[in-house]
């Protein structure tokens, strides 16, 4: 007779209560609940919604889905009128360190202007005078001579001083060109307080001439409102200060625009500001807009910004009509990865390698492209460490501006129209598909979910690539999947009845893989017995666990072990390993049984690397919580072992036995000796040599065995081999001398290695051995095998 537990009794009562209602009514109620949840999440965690942590996570996932759309689309047509003159490594090598002399900029402007460039825009500011030591010395000389100096000498000094004034030369080039747009940076309140307020005010008196000529109110029902308040309340940016260009240069330039950026929470630059407010007085366009303004010679009367109580409504910019977000930002429709636009080295332009006529009627952007300048940006195509320079971000914005009337080439759109589409899809996936799931077999439901997700993915990608629409992906797809999961689970539980599962009986002491096989053929696996089979066995152990545990309370120790063992077990199961047992803080697992796996050695090695990675993440978490961190050693061996269901009639376990199991355990212990993390045997190495980066560690003779064993250190996956090449080439070079018993040369090579890799454990070990052999030479018949003194 079966006795029900208290939990089972409660579940039975709950099942009987639900059973009073028609199943399809419950299905539809669940579908409605899922739909409402999806709509609420969409309202609060939409692309620009709440700032709560949970909602921010959903926003971040949605933004990453947009990045995936960019990656899938790849490079699209771009405007070839836009080119970049980069301050690259070649320029820095030939012209000088950054910042470059102003004379080089002057020469560049002259050459580009002579060649007929349509407009020249600098993605840079020039806030301070150039430090010219020669000019400073002449000025000091004139002051020391005073008014008593002969007029001829004074005139000559002024002549030389004028010739050495590089800022004046740059200003003259700007003035003569008449087509240069300088960039500047507006400062927030904290940075503005540290800046020169008087200078910011003076700068405003210069740049106000290039503010938005017309900022018009869009009144609702004739009701007036405060323009500044409407701008701020709707997320508009207002800056009290500026990193101002020198007045001499600003007055000589044709125009100036800001290049402030607003990265998303993950640091990726997906938006661009087209318009901000400065000193609560005027609205100013960005560098990209001012560049377009000068290129197309847009008159002031054709430029206007329209602001309502809801924020910015639209911008009229000559023939272009933009509808940014209410805060003045737009979604950049990147044309492709870095270097989509044509790049020229500034040095090649200066020395004539690139003729000035190359830039005729071009939009020329001048900015840093050398990594050392540090103007790196994260974009949907490339993250910051991949080297996407800020100057090419401006190129993309200008391209979007130029093609504002072309769907798919202008800025991405994300507004009321797109939100209505998203809402409709959520309702479709919630209510309509909920009705469908409640009436068809689970198999058909599963097929329909996969087909629908595929069609939905195609639809949002096509809308993005063809029309430039950013439609929400995560919450609608989540609504569909959750709806399917909830309704299908409900039907399986309450319509098809509860199944008696062997998992409930055996789940406490057998691995999930064994249980899955037992369900198909119980008698084969329940009865005692075994077989000899080639498997890969793994042992892992926490280093110094006994000492560490003495400093922990019982609760702290249990918490640490549970977290550690839980994480490692997940990694083992993820790689289809069989968890044999926990031996205190140690873990024993194996691959190849009961799952027949031809690649069991590969899976075991992959699991070991993932365990190390998972432990590193745990240690970071524990460190942040002020808890102790741990290190582990992992040993792997491949070979014939006895495997099967072993134990007594009352308690069986699927386990392995044999010499190869013992060797795996020894290899785990050897990680301490060689100060490594993962040691594998020759049997394992032979099966995975081309798939992983391994180091030929040593040839050893373990205690109690006569035959030597070659052991290897498992370092990484094969695709990362180049990363380890400096280490391995030096190490192998040193080991050649070691095995040739050339102790002096071995010591030299190992010493050289330690200068490059001072923390490399095996190198330290072999250096100690070589020093010992130099004092006490091994026996004449020494074969290079190291005899382990401990188990």
Task: Summarize this entry quickly.
This protein is α/β, with parallel strands linked by helices and 791 residues long.
Fold and architecture overview:
- Strands 19, 20, 21, 22, 23, 24, 25, 26 and 27 form a 9-stranded mixed beta sheet that branches. Strands 1, 2, 3, 6, 7, 15 and 16 form a 7-stranded mixed beta sheet that branches. A 4-stranded mixed beta sheet has the order 4-11-12-13.
- It is globular.
- With 791 residues, it is of the alpha/beta class.
- Helix 2 (23-45) packs antiparallel against helix 16 (416-437), helix 13 (287-295) crosses helix 15 (390-402) and helix 28 runs antiparallel to helix 29 (761-775).
- The protein has 29 helices and 27 strands.
- Among the domains are: 36-75 and 413-494, no CATH class; 82-213 and 241-296 and 336-402, no CATH class; 521-688, Nucleotide cyclase, GGDEF domain (Alpha-Beta Plaits).
- The model is unreliable at 496-502 (pLDDT under 50).
- The two termini are 51 Å apart.
Question: What is the element layout, followed by pairings?
Answer:
Blueprint: H1 6-18, H2 23-45, H3 53-73, E1 82-87, H4 89-95, H5 102-114, E2 119-122, H6 133-145, H7 151-163, H8 166-177, E3 180-187, H9 189-193, H10 197-207, E4 215-217, H11 227-233, E5 238-239, E6 241-243, H12 247-252, E7 255-258, E8 271-273, E9 275-278, E10 282-285, H13 287-295, E11 303-308, E12 311-317, E13 320-322, E14 329-331, E15 342-345, H14 346-350, E16 363-368, E17 376-377, E18 388-389, H15 390-402, H16 416-437, H17 442-467, H18 474-494, H19 502-506, H20 512-520, H21 522-526, E19 529-542, H22 545-550, H23 554-574, E20 578-583, E21 586-591, H24 600-624, E22 632-647, E23 652-657, H25 659-674, E24 678-681, H26 682-688, E25 692-701, E26 709-717, H27 721-739, H28 743-756, H29 761-775, E27 786-787
Parallel strand pairs: 1-15, 1-16, 2-3, 2-16, 3-7, 4-11, 5-9, 22-24, 25-27
Antiparallel strand pairs: 3-6, 8-14, 9-10, 11-12, 12-13, 17-18, 19-21, 19-22, 20-21, 22-23, 24-26, 25-26
Helix pairs in contact: 2-16, 2-18, 5-8, 6-7, 13-15, 16-18, 17-18, 23-24, 27-28, 28-29
């Amino acid at each position: 007779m079966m006795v029900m537990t208290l939990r089972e009794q409660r579940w039975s009562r709950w099942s009987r209560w639900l059973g009073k209602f028609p199943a399809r009514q419950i299905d539809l109620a669940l579908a409605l609940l899922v739909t409402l949840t999806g709509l609420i999440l969409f309202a609060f965690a939409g692309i620009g919604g709440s700032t709560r942590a949970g909602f921010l996570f959903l926003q971040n996932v949605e933004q990453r889905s947009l990045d995936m759309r960019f990656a899938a689309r790849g490079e699209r047509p771009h405007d070839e009128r836009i080119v970049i003159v980069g301050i690259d490594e070649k320029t820095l090598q030939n012209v000088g360190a950054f910042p470059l002399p102003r004379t080089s900029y002057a020469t560049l402007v002259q050459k580009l202007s002579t060649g007929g460039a349509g407009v020249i825009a600098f993605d840079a500011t020039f806030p301070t005078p150039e430090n010219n030591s020669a000019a400073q010395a002449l000025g000091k000389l004139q002051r020391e001579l005073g008014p008593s100096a002969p007029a001829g000498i004074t005139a000559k000094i002024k002549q030389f001083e004028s010739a050495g004034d590089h800022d004046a030369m740059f200003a003259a080039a700007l003035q003569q060109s008449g087509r240069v747009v300088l960039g500047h940076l507006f400062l927030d309140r904290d940075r503005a307080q540290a800046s020169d307020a008087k200078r910011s005010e003076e700068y405003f008196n210069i740049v106000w001439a290039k503010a938005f000529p017309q900022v018009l109110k869009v009144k609702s029902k004739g009701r007036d409102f405060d323009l500044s308040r409407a701008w701020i309340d709707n997320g508009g940016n207002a800056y009290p200060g500026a990193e101002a260009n020198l007045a001499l240069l600003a007055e000589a330039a044709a125009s100036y625009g800001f290049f402030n950026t607003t990265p998303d929470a993950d640091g990726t630059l997906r938006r661009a500001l087209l318009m901000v407010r400065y000193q609560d007085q005027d609205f100013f366009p960005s560098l990209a807009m001012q560049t377009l303004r000068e290129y197309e010679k847009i008159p002031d009367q054709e430029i206007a910004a329209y602001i309502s109580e809801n924020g910015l409504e639209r911008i009229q910019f000559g023939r272009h009509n933009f509808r940014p977000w209410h805060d003045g930002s737009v979604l950049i429709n990147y044309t492709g990865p870095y270097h989509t636009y044509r790049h020229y080295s500034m040095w090649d332009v200066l020395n004539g390698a690139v003729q000035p006529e190359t830039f005729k009627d071009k939009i020329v952007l001048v900015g840093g492209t050398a990594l050392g300048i540090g103007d790196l940006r994260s974009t949907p195509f490339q993250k910051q460490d991949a080297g996407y320079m800020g100057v090419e971000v401006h190129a993309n914005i200008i391209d979007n501006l130029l093609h504002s009337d072309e769907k798919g080439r202008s800025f991405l759109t994300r507004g009321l129209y797109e939100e209505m589409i998203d809402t409709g899809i959520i309702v479709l996936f919630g209510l309509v598909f909920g009705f469908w799931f409640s009436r068809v077999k689970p198999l058909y439901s599963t097929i329909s979910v996969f087909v629908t997700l595929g069609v939905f993915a195609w639809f949002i990608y096509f809308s993005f690539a063809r029309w430039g629409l950013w439609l929400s992906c995560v919450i609608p797809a989540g609504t569909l999947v959750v709806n399917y999961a909830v309704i299908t689970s409900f039907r399986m539980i309450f319509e098809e009845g509860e199944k008696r599962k062997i998992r409930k009986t055996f789940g406490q002491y057998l691995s999930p893989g064994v249980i899955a096989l037992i369900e198909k053929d119980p008698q084969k696996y329940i009865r005692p017995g075994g077989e000899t089979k080639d498997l890969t066995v793994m042992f892992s152990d926490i280093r110094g666990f006994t000492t560490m545990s003495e400093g922990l309370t019982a609760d702290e120790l249990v918490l640490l072990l549970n977290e550690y063992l839980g994480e490692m077990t997940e990694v083992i199961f993820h790689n289809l390993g069989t968890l044999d047992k926990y031996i205190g803080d140690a873990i024993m697992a194996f691959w190849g049984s009961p799952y027949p796996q031809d690649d069991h050695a590969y899976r075991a090695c992959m699991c070991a690397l993932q365990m190390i990675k998972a432990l590193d993440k745990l240690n970071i978490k524990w460190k942040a919580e002020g808890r102790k961190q741990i290190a582990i050693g992992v040993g792997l061996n491949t070979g014939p072992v006895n495997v099967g269901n072993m134990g007594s009639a009352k308690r069986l376990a699927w386990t392995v036995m044999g010499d190869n199991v013992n060797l795996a355990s020894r290899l785990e212990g050897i990680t301490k000796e060689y100060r490594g993390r993962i040691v594998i045997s020759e049997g394992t190495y032979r099966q995975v040599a081309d798939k992983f980066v391994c180091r030929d560690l040593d040839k050893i003779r373990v205690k109690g065995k006569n035959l030597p064993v070659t052991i290897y250190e498992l370092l990484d996956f094969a695709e990362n081999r180049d990363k380890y090449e400096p280490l391995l080439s030096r190490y192998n070079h040193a080991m050649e001398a070691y095995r040739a018993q050339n102790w002096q040369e071995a010591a030299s090579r190992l010493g050289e290695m330690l200068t490059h890799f001072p923390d490399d454990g095996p190198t330290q070990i072999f250096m100690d051995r070589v020093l010992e052999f130099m004092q006490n030479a091994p026996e004449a018949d020494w074969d290079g095998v190291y005899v382990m003194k401990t188990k």
